[in-house]
Fold these 2 entries.
Entry 1:
Amino acid sequence: MKPETRQQEIIRVAAKLFKEKGYSAVTMRHLATAMDIKAASLYNHIESKQDILERIIISLAETFTQGMKQISESNETCINKLKKIIELHVHISSKNSYGMASLNNDWMHLESQLTYYKKLRSDYENDFKTILEDGIKSGEIIHAKPDVMMFSILTTLRSLYIWIPKKEVINLKELTDDLSNILINGIAKE
Amino acid sequence: MKPETRQQEIIRVAAKLFKEKGYSAVTMRHLATAMDIKAASLYNHIESKQDILERIIISLAETFTQGMKQISESNETCINKLKKIIELHVHISSKNSYGMASLNNDWMHLESQLTYYKKLRSDYENDFKTILEDGIKSGEIIHAKPDVMMFSILTTLRSLYIWIPKKEVINLKELTDDLSNILINGIAKE
DNA sequence: GTCTATACCGTGATAGAC
DNA sequence: GTCTATCACGGTATAGAC
């Protein structure tokens, strides 16, 4: 493990503050106080407040894109692909729950990178929907609206960052299995 | 239908802006421009920016509390209670998708009403969990962790405000039924 | 790499004329 | 009920000393 650079430290602390109050409500002075330095000193390590937001969001979004590429190109069944997607979200959300908050809530404050972010997101959703549609064709998945199914699963996965830090027990394998079961098989008996 | 008061109009327009950019990023000058008046004029109808946020969030939170009270006190089966909850969320989210954005994303910017809001939310979640636990006892619902089940269903319902306005067709009955089926019975065949 | 000092602008809100 | 004018404050960011 390389030691964390000062820039990485700033980004990590910023992400934590962004999660608590949102990008717009966090000031450079707050961030500086949390880092125990003066606001002006931050600018030796980052270019601007916007720069911090970009580094948080874009790297996460690209990680999801990469993960989805591997999953959608694999030869698994559709149900197994869905399980891999759930695993991907649990894994990333547990590693970086602060960053996930920005990804979910503050993407609209991106400036020059907004279009790029939107493309990554829409590509991801298209791949997700294709998996569901293939599953319907092959008979693995019920014949319901892919949009509604994707919405239901994806909003749950996108909210994991709220929920994972609250659980004392961080048995990620168990959480992945429980979620897979509930999202795929439902909660009703029989 | 009584005609909308100027105050109600301000709150409605503010909620729309809050949904797009978040409470902190919306300025009184933006809001005034959207209302086609000057910022100072807003203060004839509302006390402060905070006042607007409170009016949006607290009235919605209280509506949910009322709805949950009726449902949890009814003599329905647990599965039917869950269906009623889904219906409640679809109904409120379709009537006030802008306000739902603030309820979900900007509650932490409440000041004097923050504690009250948190109590309403935690009461709601406790009632929800009790319904699930009763369902497990009675054998209607699988023996899985109530926390995980509630998280999964509730995050989906809480995100409806993002999704409902995107659907051209606003057949709410159909959406309620589709969601009930997916959330309760899952998406896997058999 | 951090500091002090500061520039410059936008913020929420108020006073008082009309 | 809306306006203009204004206030006190806090926002991001830079310059230059150490």
Entry 2:
Amino acid sequence: MLDRNHRANQRERTLLSKTSFIRALSPMASSKMLDGAHIATMPARASIFREGEAALSFYCLLSGYVRLYRVSRDGRQADIRICGPGDMFAECLIYGGDKYRFNAQAAENVTLARFDMQDVRELAEQDPTVAKAIMATLSDHLLSTMDCVVNDRLHTAPQRVADYLLTRCATENGPTSIRLPYQKSLLAGMLGLAPEALSRAFSSLRRTGVTVRGRVIQIGNVEALKDV
Amino acid sequence: MLDRNHRANQRERTLLSKTSFIRALSPMASSKMLDGAHIATMPARASIFREGEAALSFYCLLSGYVRLYRVSRDGRQADIRICGPGDMFAECLIYGGDKYRFNAQAAENVTLARFDMQDVRELAEQDPTVAKAIMATLSDHLLSTMDCVVNDRLHTAPQRVADYLLTRCATENGPTSIRLPYQKSLLAGMLGLAPEALSRAFSSLRRTGVTVRGRVIQIGNVEALKDV
DNA sequence: GGCCCAATTTGACGTCGATCAAACTGGGCC
DNA sequence: GGCCCAGTTTGATCGACGTCAAATTGGGCC
């Protein structure tokens, strides 16, 4: 399951220190967290944990993308969140139950830091900056999951895609272009769409000046996307 | 907007003390929270706060139901969560930004306790039980919002209704009956359905032994609902 | 540069749920 | 008990998206 599994080396400590979670900690707490981190690399499609397993650790992603999803009785999958470099996941179980509530899978080769829940719980009791950082992360994830519900319920496929493109645009107006950091099928899942529906949404955005070639998306006019 | 607005009296302090949030606090923190609570009653349909307003307070509901929702550009509404007695809401803004991110509206006559965010932030720094209780609440809300996304994406209307009924069933098997605590249109919204779709879902569940008369739902066999 | 295979796109079709309009009902109130 | 009206149900229609199958493409690799 785990390719490698070791304590964080200097390079990995530096990467971790740049994440918003670790940066929010006091120097003392930060170094305790770094000392407690276990680093592992996993190949694409590997399972990180499964729904129902005992939730002993939570994770911080250093490189690659991870898919959090649940499976229905008839085998269909629904993505809950896609995590990228710097994102934490399963932190909702620090005070939220003792079993994982969804599956986590590497969407490509990934490097991740694993933290022991119990250790962090104890750290949070002693150092208020730890509790504060956890609360900030939980709030952030809660708000974006709420956004997800609202998007699903109010927007059509082309609108969700336009929204997504806007969040990843550097500029506020005019033409620009974006390179997707992952496969389209992953993007489809995070928008709650079948890959075919994403493809059709892109092609319906052609009239709005959006051109797709592989992972590169050309946007004729950012303003125009705002009123899809 | 606010009918009454006063400090919590004995009756209200008792109600508040029974909520899972307050019960998780140390005696000291608990009494500070109760002292800081402002009680208000509001009539059905009244707005409690709107998206974009400065987020100065969060709330704990003492009686009635509150709808959290967002409005799309073309005026359609999507419910994010329905809160009942004992539920907290807008607590995700304690460490999650300075503006409300959704609207809150009384679904019927409600009594609610208002807490000053800044006061509670300070309390959380001093007393770890406060931070712990906030984290537990945030985790709980995050997990149930994730459930909501998954339900929307994987289940049809009859399945969502069956799920809902199962969560509110006292018994594990055999026949039973349930009384909805609110209007069907509110239930429809929380399941992400139009009222018509909820009605049709109920009528499609008749073949599974579900009978509806007003707010009373008769269930022939709880087991049967599990494999809708 | 060409090959190859997985990823993506396109086409055809079915189903689910939104919407609008009209009929009905149940529960609060006198 | 009867009235009344908001809330709910029913009917008809439509658009959006999922699914399956087949065609196409792009990007990694030699």
